[in-house]
Amino acid sequence: MSKTEIVRLSVSDVRFPTSLEQHGSDAMHTDPDYSVAYVVIETDDGLKGYGLTFTLGKGTEIVLCAVEALSGFVIGKHLDEIVNDFRGFYRQLTSDGQMRWIGPEKGVIQLATAAVLNAVWDLWARSEGKPLWKLLVDMDPKKLISCIDFRYITDALTEQEALDILLKGQEGKRQREEQMLEKGYPAYTTSCAWLGYPDQQLKQLCTEALSTGWTRFKVKVGADLQDDIRRCRLIRQMIGPSGTLMIDANQRWDVGEAVTWVTRLAEFRPLWIEEPTSPDDILGHAAISKALAPLGIGVATGEQCHNRVMFKQLLQASALQFVQIDSCRLGSVNENLAVLLMACKFQVPVCPHAGGVGLCELVQHLILFDYICVSASLDNRMCEYVDHLHEHFKSPVIIRDAHYMPPKDPGYSTEMLEESVRRHQYPQGEVWQELQSPAKRARPSAHS
Ligand SMILES: C[C@H](O)[C@@H](O)CC(=O)C(=O)O
Ligand SMILES: [Mg+2]
Question: What's this protein's family per the entry (predicted)?
Answer without folding.
Answer: Belongs to the mandelate racemase/muconate lactonizing enzyme family. ENOSF1 subfamily.
